[in-house]
Amino acid sequence: MIALLALFPFSGAESWIVNIGIFTLMYAVLGSAWNLIGGYTGYVSLGSVAFFGLGAYGLALTFQHIGIGNGFLPFALVPLIGIAVAIISLPIGWIAFRTRGLPFIIVTISLVIILQYMALNLTDVTGGAPGLQVPQAPFPPGTYEEYFYWAMLVVFAVTLLACAYVRRSRLGLMMFAVREDEDKARGLGVATSVPKYAAFAGCAAFSAMAGAVWAYYLSTVYPQFAFDGEFLAMGIILVAYLGGIGTLWGPFVGALILTPAQQYFAYSLGGSQLYLIAYAAVFIVVMLFLPRGVMTTFADRALRRSRRRKQVVEELATAESESPRDAPSPVVAR
Amino acid sequence: MLSTGMRLRSWTLAIGLCVGVAACGTPAPTSSSSTTKGPLTIGISVSLTGDFSNTGKAAQLGYQLWASQINAKGGILGRQVQLSFADDASSPTQVVTNYQNFISRDKVDLVFGPYSSLLTLAAAKVANRYGYAFVEGAGNGPSVFAAHLPNLIDAGPATAINGAQVWGDYILSLPADQRPKTAAYPSLDDPFSQPAAAALQARFEAAGIKTVYSQTYPAETTSLGGVIAKVASANPDMVVSGSQDADGWAQVQAMIQQKFNPKFLFMTNGPENPVDFPKNVGAQNTQGIFTSDVWTYSAPIPGNSAFVQAYIAKYGGTASQIDSTSAQTYAVGQLIEAVAAKTGKIDNQTIISTLHQGSYQTVVGIVSVDQYGAPKGSQFLEEWIGGKLTIVYPPSIAEQAPVIPKPTWP
Amino acid sequence: MHLLVQAIILGVLTGGLYALMTSGLTLTFGTMRIINMAQGVFVVCGAYIAFTLFNYLHIDPFLSILVSTPLLFAIGFTLQTFLLKPIRHDAHRLSLLMTWAMAIGLEGILSFIFGTDFRGILTTYQNSSWTIAGYEIPVVRALAFALSVAILVGMYLLLTRTKFGRSVRAVSQRESAAKLLGVNTDRTAALAFGLGAATAGAAGAMFGLVSSFDPASHYDLIGRLLAICVIGGLGSNAGAIAGAVILALSESVVQAEFSPAWSSVPFYVLLIIVLIARPQGLFGVRTRGAI
Predict the structure, then answer these.
(1) Angle in degrees, 0-180, between the axes of helices C237-257 and B225-234, rounded to the nearest 10
(2) Domains identified in chain B, total number
(3) B125 and A136: CB-CB below 8 Å?
(4) Nearest Cα to C218, choosing from C21, C83, C64, C27?
(5) Domain that holds residue A321
(6) How many interface pairs between B and C have CB atoms less than 8 angstroms apart?
(7) Residue B54 to residue C117, Cβ atoms within 8 A
(8) Would you call A63 helix, strand, or coil by DSSP?
(9) Is A313 found in the same domain as A212?
(10) Confidence at A320, pLDDT banded by 50, 70, 90
(11) Nearest CA in chain A to C216
């Protein structure tokens, strides 16, 4: 699948399609990264955007202070930024994990607000409201987008591999245990802070890497866009929900449906001011009719069909369902 | 506006994208390349939703008025002008997509700028990659020109910093005993207002006017009571407010509530709106407040009264309801028209090279830009006198001499 | 010193209004265990209702509370019935996005009707202030504070002295037990959500008086309101009031004495300190699974 995605720019796709492809992959990365904390451990976080913004500023600041040129070198910097932000996220996680449930959500929102304040006010470091400029890459206009597309794709592949690995490992089991009942898990001797911090730092690292590529692609960084607690934060969660929370490919599917549609509506509904209403309507339809997400819903359906045919229940349920919570209850099967 | 045919094709392409990703390798249909015979298509992204949407609609009205006028005259070099608008939802990600779509999908002939410095740069860089000229009417903060883009041209007569300098010119033209001795500079933290106030502060300090307060407040500050309380306690002769709109009203309201009345009150933005300003601070409270502006319906600029009449004929209302953003975007069109008239050609390279030289008359004054598109001119000074926004400086175009000091709040 | 006292006066007056806005959020959290991201836009709706009534029918904004409150109650009740009730099986997670969708949907509708220009309500007493012992007390803020306190007292009486109040408290303490005791939990939830929106309607009319607004104003509002909730303790009315006053007071004092650019930062620093020392908030109760 990743290989197919890598070939996509060679399919004769024009720049504008590759451009939408970049943003689609960006949301796929952000959604998958969010899935680690929100989907696997059940800690609904709006803090992804904070790390996205840190990644964006990390790249822009490196340009300002070190002068890394504007060719391919900045791409090499992306993983370093990811690691740095992951380290920064640990003390933040220490504060945030003192709460859980709804207060945790609000703490993560506050984190975005605080960082936006800092970006605006630490003018000596961040440039303040006028933002930071990153030099444009010297790629030819016809293929300019493709490099960023591949960069974002690599980030996505790494994110996906990490998620796939986690799901199969003991770590993933610990994450799911935290989601199901954290107190019980701790009572049973699970070191619950390990999966929680791992998910939080992983989410931070991948979000920051997406932010760094985004900053280089747009080549401008402003506080209110890098730390966009409004549309970006909610858009990430919507992508994960639409695709199917806790599933491996769910956020990608969600991003593939939502991002092109969103970008297209804003482009073509111009002049009608209906954009916000249309966007809200999509949210509501997803919540009412697909609350378990596209991937989970289809997995359920496939499962039900095969059950009817084979009358086999238990093995398939574990083989096909993506995670413990998403396993359909036996009541569903007729 | 996109035609139905184009819309259908876009849908096919959007679906094609999804199919293309899933099946991978299906070549996307190619768009027809532009011809030089057909209409002159122009892509413009405006903010109709989000943080910068206040003026997005006004920007659209100015562009549309220009297009309908030029088309009635037979178009540019015989080509009818066709405008395509897209909503950027005040987001840089969307603005990049929109200009990318305009240029590489719809293959428009020209693009014009969006509103706000924050979106201008992201969009201008896309246009720059493709060698498109980027003429814009509303992104004149210093960061826009600091990016040193060769394709960018600001259609205003002055940058945000230079625009406010007319207040400095006026104050320093006063005899020393009439000048304020102390000054306060409360500014909104944004890329236009704060640099303008800071530039004035530097100039006034050099001239010996003592700074007693200089702070910025964030955009989401809803109550400026504390800021004004501090300003009032320093009791300066002059307040230079680096304001936008709503925060400017809030400053005035707080000053009245706290019964603080500076002898000189200059605001970079807010009072220049002849409708909203008196409506929100009270018409009786406007007396003696100064601001600078590029355009007003009564400004003695060649072509301005014709523009005002045409605007009213097309959209109704009264002259005082016209937003200066509409005049600025109208001026963008006038520049394009001027290029065609001067060179007999209308392509991006010609526009870039032509507009970087010489000066051009528009409804917002004479436009002349430097190598990075920054306009070299200045704005004029306005004062609210007797409930009317009056041009008071420079004397060459003043309708009346400035009235100082500011009377106490009624 | 004079400046400090002046800033404290302004801060306390603003805090009263925030407390009223937050009380609705606390109520819906208490009864339904959801965060209502639409509370900010409900406030903005209240402001637009007051704006419309003032500009077209010349009704005083304080009187327009009599219209905005029942209207917002109806909007809240309807939205709860059609959009929140169907997702109650997983309300804990889905409600965040659902109420967010309500918020941007209502923002879109407001933009469509009123446009996106900043609006303000200019009454004859808008800029007047009383001078007491050398301190300026803006009339609108003082009246808004007094009325907010009155409504909060009314809410308190409603929750402690009436049958509805008892069922709300029963549901917020233990929903399943309340159900067994014959409390109609669905109806209680709808009424509570409606009531939460109604407080926003009342607060909104006054918000429109003390500051200008546009449809997008709700983003800033909801951020503040949520932070107030957490610092005070989610679901705690006393906490909401304390949090609101701390927020407004610290903003006003820092704005005047130090730097307006950093005015919100001490509040968030305090928020972090409170979370480290007392994760359930100043007045919150530690319950299993909630904190």
Answers:
(1) 30
(2) 2
(3) yes
(4) C21
(5) 298-332
(6) 117
(7) yes
(8) helix
(9) no
(10) very low
(11) A230
Q: Using omega within 30 degrees of 0 as the cis cutoff, is the peptide bond preceding B405 cis?
A: yes
Q: Go through chain A and tell me how many residues it has.
A: 334
Q: Is residue B118 part of a domain?
A: yes
Counting the structural domains of chain A, the total is 2
- What tokens appear for A256 in the block? 């593939």
H or E stretch covering B216 = strand B210-217
Q: Please, what is the angle between helix A15-34 and helix A231-243, to 10°?
A: 80
Sheet of strand B152-154, all strands in order from the earlier edge strand to the far edge: B81-87, B40-46, B110-112, B134-136, B152-154
A57, A134: one domain: yes
For residue range C55-72, what is the model confidence (pLDDT) as tens digits? 999 999 999 999 999 999
Provide the residue range defining the domain that includes B117. 31-158+304-367
Q: What is the ipTM of this complex?
A: 0.81
Structure-model confidence comparison of residues B108 and A263, the more confident one: B108
CA atoms within 13 A on the CB side of C12: 9
Q: CA-to-CA distance for B78 and B80, rounded, in angstroms?
A: 7
Q: How far apart are CA C71 and CA C67, in angstroms?
A: 6
What's the pLDDT at B237?
95
B17–A21 C-beta distance less than 8 A: yes
Considering the domain architecture, whether residues A59 and A142 belong to the same structural domain is answered as yes
pLDDT per residue as tens digits for the range C101-127: 999 899 989 988 888 788 888 888 877
Structure tokens, B43: 């892509």
Asked if omega into B394 is within 30° of 0 (cis), the reply is yes
Determine whether the interchain pair A15/B87 forms a contact, defined as Cβ–Cβ distance below 8 Å.
no
Q: Is the pLDDT of residue B4 over 70?
A: no
The answer to whether C186 faces chain B, any CB pair under 8 Å, is no
User: Of all residues in chain B, what percent carry a pLDDT higher than 70?
Assistant: 89
- Name the band, by pLDDT with cuts 50, 70 and 90, for residue B54: low
Model pLDDT, residue A334: 29
- A313 and A192 part of one domain: no
Q: Report CA C97 to chain centroid distance, whole Å.
A: 19
Structure-token pair, residue C192 = 């509570």
Per-residue tokens: B214: 């200089």
Q: What domains are defined for chain C?
A: 2-277 (1.10.3470)
Give the tokens for residue A134: 């990153």
The pair of structure tokens assigned to C216 is 């997008």
Do residues A10 and A155 both lie within one domain? Answer: yes
DSSP state of B215: E
User: What is the spatial distance between Cα C143 and Cα B145, in angstroms, rounded to a whole number?
Assistant: 48
More reliable by pLDDT, B192 or A95: A95
Name the CA dihedral angle for B15, B16, B17, B20, rounded to a multiple of 10 degrees.
130
Residue C85 DSSP label: G
A277 vs C108, C261, C272: nearest CB: C108
Per-residue pLDDT at B244 exceeds 90: no
The pLDDT of residue C164 is above 50: yes
Question: pLDDT band at residue A130, thresholds of 50, 70 and 90?
Answer: confident
Grade residue C287 by pLDDT with cuts at 50, 70 and 90: low
Determine contact: C230 vs chain A, CB below 8 A.
yes
Between the two ends of chain A, the Cα-to-Cα distance in Å is 34
Radius of gyration (C-alpha) of chain B in whole angstroms: 23
A 137-156 near B (Cβ less than 8 A): 141, 144-145
Which residue type is seen at C284? Answer: G
d(CA C22, CA C222): 9
pLDDT higher than 50, residue B252 = yes
Question: Hey, which of A133-142, A149-158, A262-271, C271-280 has the most confident mean pLDDT?
Answer: A149-158
| The two structure tokens encoding residue C222 | 């909801």
Q: Mark residue B237 as left, alpha or beta (left: phi above 0; alpha: psi -120 to 50; beta: remaining).
A: alpha
Whether the per-residue pLDDT at B41 is higher than 70: the answer is: yes
First-to-last alpha carbon distance for chain B, in angstroms, is 49
- Residue ranges in B24-151 assigned as alpha helix (H): 53-72, 92-100, 117-129, 142-146
Locate C115 and state its tokens.
Answer: 């446009």
